[in-house]
Amino acid sequence: MSVQITTLEELTSPSRAASSSLSIQEYFLNMGPQHPIAHGSLRLLLVLDGEIVREVIPVPGFVHRGIEKMCEHLTCRQIVHLTDRMDYLSALSNNWCLSRTVERAAGIETNERIETVRTIVAELQRVQSHALWWGVLGMDLGALTPFLYAFRDREIISTAFEETIGARLTMNYIQPGGLMFDIHPGFVARVKEVLAHMRPILDEYDALLSGNVILQERLRNVGVLPAEKALAMGCTGPVLRGSGVALDLRKAEPYGVYEKAAFDVVVGTVGDCVRMEEMRQSLGIVEQLIDSIPAGPHMTVKPAAKIKLPAGMHYGQIETPRGILGTLIVSDGKSDKPWRVHFRTPNYNNLWAVTAIAPGCKIADIIAIQASLDLVIPDIDR
Amino acid sequence: MTGEKPKRSVRILGGREVPVIVMPRLPGKGPHVARSAISLLKGMRLTGSYFRPSKVVTRQYPENRKTLKLPERFRARLKLIDDAGGHHKCTGCKLCQKACPNDSIRVLTRKGPVTQKNELDRYIWRQDSCIVCNACVQACPFGALEMTGDFESAVYDRRLLIHTLNRYAGPPASVLDQAAEAEREKMMEPRDAYGGPTPMNGQAMPEVPPLLAAPPGDGEGAPSAGKPDNKEGADS
Amino acid sequence: MTEIAHAGIGKAASSYAVWTVADRAGGLLEQHAWLSAGYIVVAMAAILGMIAVLGVVLIYLERKVSAHFQCRLGPMRVGPHGIFQTVADTLKLFLKEDTVPVGADSLLHLLAPFLSVAAVALILCVLPYSPNLQIADVNIGVLFVGAVSGLGVMGILVGGWSSNSKWSLIGAMRGAAQIVSYEVSATLALLVVVLLSGTLSLSGIVQSQEAGWWIWRAPGVGLLAFVMFIISSSAEINRTPFDIAEGESELAAGFHTEYSGLRFAFFFLAEFINMFIVSALAATLFLGGWMPFHIGGLEGFNGVMDLVPPGAWFFAKTAAMIFLFMWFRWTFPRLRIDQLMRLEWKVLLPVGLVNLVVTAAMVLLGLYFFPVG
Questions:
Q1: Residues 6+ apart with CB under 8 A from B41
Q2: Chain A residue with minimum CA distance to C169
Q3: Which of A263, A350, B151, B155 lies most in the core, judged by the most C-beta atoms within 10 Å?
Q4: pLDDT for position B34
Q5: Does residue A249 lie in a domain region?
Q6: Where are the alpha helices (DSSP H) in A179-263?
Q7: Chains that touch C (3 or more CB pairs under 8 A)
Q8: Rounded to an integer, what distance in angstroms lies between the CA atom of residue B137 and that of residue B143?
Q9: Residue A39: which of A346, A382, A378 has the closest Cα?
């Protein structure tokens, strides 16, 4: 069985352009990897006909750092810091995914306190990540002010993290077996400050951007992804929920203490602003959990203990702010370093959704589509 | 967003009931003139309300250095903790070296001249590759390490980023505190901040000699006031 | 805030001092030929000086105003509160390498920024800054302004085409289409004022507002024409929400992608002076220009208002309009090109035409406050 491999050269050859209709002249335009709005180094090759996009060919790989290869030489505890750097806006969720996989494979039990704190920080990170998405959406569409407002609000959450975790972006906090530090004595007070600050701010967000007629007109009926196509491409997270499929791992395969918290899964019909409501739901979850963090140790496994995974394939998944992150660890059972690690990253599948919805849009719409997909490029390339 | 409220309902997915909130669609017909104008004015009112000096949230660094206070857990610079007598607690067990994900720590040990046991010779920390992940601090069974918030480490020469964290080569405080005063002197041998063997990770860099000995004194890995290349007062 | 106030007051004070001297000299010039020649030279110097000073001040103000909208401070280091920041930036631009892309049409590439600046300088000549100070009091002022602002399009088109770059070309095409379209509704708004005041000359229009400014004196139509003028002018000067031609987040930098150094500085400068011109026009036509705030027959009130010098009135109104444009820019996202076109041809044009007809009816029937003659 031969595999048909289409290379970039074939896709962009002049003969291919000429073989299309004689009266239309299509031309190629490179959007990225260096571009003021590219969210990372992503090259999008646009096949254009005037102002209309006929085809989008993404060329990822500019931020490839060989994370999965590096993992083969590191112990399970040492891999955690690499997950920080994949989708850096949801670093804690990435840490959690890996830790959960390792814990389930090695049979490590965690206690209520650990799971509650993990849930709280993951939900705060979701609020932070969606706030950034909101700001970047505004910035991509020309309103530079929301970007600054979003960062001001992220700052408050970052300060809460900084106090407990010691870092603002590369957290390395949720480890196999527990947490790196116990929560700071001032953590609960700070989180309550965050809750008090963020709720009215979300209404301000609506007033400034999401309720703005110009933005609504820019996004109305632009880049609608039908549910079947989304499922076929493996999109997850708000991209899928925006198309109407109510898949949220926090409800479908609950982990942490999500079963204890009452919240709703937010879906859209044609993908409208699912993330704004998700922020409110996350704040609700944190509010329910923050007052009753059970007592207990913050680590159930000694840091120096070697974690050996039994032989075989182990898989675990988590709902990050962008979708389902999955970690596959293949272990040979003998050493404490994995044989192979693979990350099923949500941004990789969400990226290819652009190819399905872009044809027929204008150049300005491509930017709106990319902004609304909320891609983090290092997650695509790992 | 448009005046319609999100609706709560229940969907079935995979045989399970999922409580959902359905976000409303934008009205398909296009913008409504009055509502559009009002939305624009609301946005302007919001930005206008932020147009006053009291709303500024940024801080002016480095003008505010004197009052700048970082959280105690902020991770920027590795240090060997000194006990009351000024002695470190490192035994040279190399667990931190094993825990470090990218080989930024090298613990060099020697056989102590007095104790005849394995003890710390040089604790070399490479700040140019360290990712401040805190794994070393967590791995140390004796609590000898800490991550401090000293973030002003910019230097003009890369070699100044390879620190020797211990000021003396010798046994840890637990041993030193029990020894007599005279013996203590013989057990400890002073070490300077930058004189460690460079580079590490198995690569030889010809014509790169180790840096000359720093002025003795507080060469505990933190740049002291006498160094020409380092920021003053970084330790204050 | 204080730095903005200082800049504004300082500018107004210095310009007022200059203007009153020129005011007194103004009467002599028509009589002596050699004085006329000297006057031309002085006028040229004044225009260049004005462009330079206004450019520096406006760019600094833009940075400070945008910063305060965004909860931050803006330039603070170069000079107290950063007032020398633009000077530093201009020096930097002087010293930059002047790149011309491979395959670019070098003559046109060289020429394009100067076309933009030329258009801007010509319009600066006809604005009435004060009762006796106006470099050229053309009796077809409004028509002249409308025609010359079309020259600005040439600068964009030539710059975009000559750069031999796809991004620049797309930006130039968009820019040209946008400016040419919005000139129509801007002109319709201007025509409302021409109808009301009965003259095309800019100084005549200002004089006609002695009883009151057109924005409130012509009920309904004045305000509507003002709003239309503001929207159309935003599009004319390529400012958000209509900056699709140079949308930083879309097209790298649109038509001036391939410009660097001093010639980029000229494009940049032309854009800011254009903003000043459009604000000055709005102030002149709808807010009375240098005419203080008068209400018809109230002599005492009018006397009090006259105490503030006319030059100060002019600059205060222009400054308020400039602030309004900046407020728009830092609040709204930008429109897509087809939405922009739709707004113009399907919304602003019909509304403008209806407005014009209603104004004509009002003028004929004398249905506005303090009718002229």
A1: none
A2: A50
A3: A350
A4: 77
A5: no
A6: 187-205, 213-219, 227-233, 238-242, 249-252
A7: A, B
A8: 7
A9: A378
**Structure tokens given for A357:** 């919805």
Angstrom CA distances, C6 to A51, A297, C64, C283, C316, stand at 46, 60, 13, 22, 13
CB contact under 8 A, A218 and C339: yes
Task: Please give the Cα distance from C283 to C328 (Å, whole number).
Answer: 17
Amino acid type, C88? A
Q: Token pair for residue C203?
A: 């100084």
According to the model, what pLDDT value does residue B22 have?
A: 82
**In terms of DSSP bridges, do strands B7-13 and A340-344 run parallel, antiparallel, or are they unpaired?**
unpaired
Question: For chain C, what are the domain ranges?
Answer: 21-365
pLDDT tens per residue across span C96-122? 887 777 887 788 888 888 888 889 899
Summarize pLDDT for A341-354 with one digit per residue, the tens.
999 999 999 898 88
Main-chain phi, psi angles of C358, to 5 degrees: -65, -40
Q: Which long-range contacts (CB under 8 A, 24 or more apart) does C37-43 make?
A: C43/C125, C43/C135, C43/C136
Write the pLDDT tens digit of every residue in A271-296.
767 888 899 999 999 999 998 888 88
Total of domains in chain A: 1
Tell me the residues of chain B between 63 and 92 that have a Cβ less than 8 Å away from chain C. Answer: none
Interface with A, mutate which of C62, C173, C239, C249 (most A CBs under 10 A): C249
State ipTM. Answer: 0.82
Percent of chain A with pLDDT over 90: 30
Three-state DSSP class for residue A381: helix
Sign of the dihedral defined by the CA atoms of residues A29, A64, A367, C102, in that order: negative
Crossing angle of the two packed helices A112-140 and A363-373, in degrees rounded to 10: 170
In the block, tokens 């020398």 appear at C84
pLDDT in tens, B191-234: 877 766 665 444 555 555 554 444 444 333 333 333 333 333 33
Residues of C with CB below 8 A from B57's CB? 71-72
- Predicted TM-score (pTM) of the model is 0.84
B68 and chain A in contact, CB less than 8 A? no
| CATH code (residue A118) | 1.10.645.10
Rounded Cα distance between A313 and A331, Å, is: 6
The answer to whether position A198 is within a domain reads yes
**Which residue shows structure tokens 């009435």?**
C128
Return all residues near A159 (Cβ < 8 A) that are at least 6 apart.
Answer: A190, B71
| Alpha carbons C248 and A35: distance in angstroms, whole number | 9
Q: Which residues of B touch C73 (CB under 8 A)?
A: 56, 58, 60
| Tokens 């801080």, residue located | B59
pLDDT in tens, A305-338: 888 889 999 999 999 999 999 999 999 888 888 9
Q: What does the pLDDT average to over C62-83? A: 89
| Crossing angle for the helix pair C141-162 and C166-197, to the nearest 10 degrees | 180
Residue B1's pLDDT is: 43
Rounded to whole angstroms, how far apart are CA atoms C310 and B111?
91
Helical segments of chain C, H only = 2-26, 33-69, 85-94, 106-126, 141-162, 166-197, 202-208, 214-217, 221-236, 261-286, 299-306, 310-329, 337-342, 349-365
Q: Are strands B7-13 and A43-49 parallel, antiparallel or unpaired?
A: unpaired
| A171: contact with B, CB 8 A cutoff | no
Q: CA A83, CA A98: separation in Å to the nearest integer?
A: 8
Question: Token digits for C365?
Answer: 């029937």
Question: Could you give phi then psi for residue A272, rounded to 5 degrees?
Answer: -95, 110
From chain A, the residues in CB contact with C71 under 8 A are: 148-149, 152
- Kindly list the distances between the CA atom of residue C151 and the CA atoms of A113, C110, C112, C230, in Å, as whole numbers in the listed order: 70, 16, 11, 20
Confidence check: pLDDT of C33 > 70: no
Any domain includes A287: yes
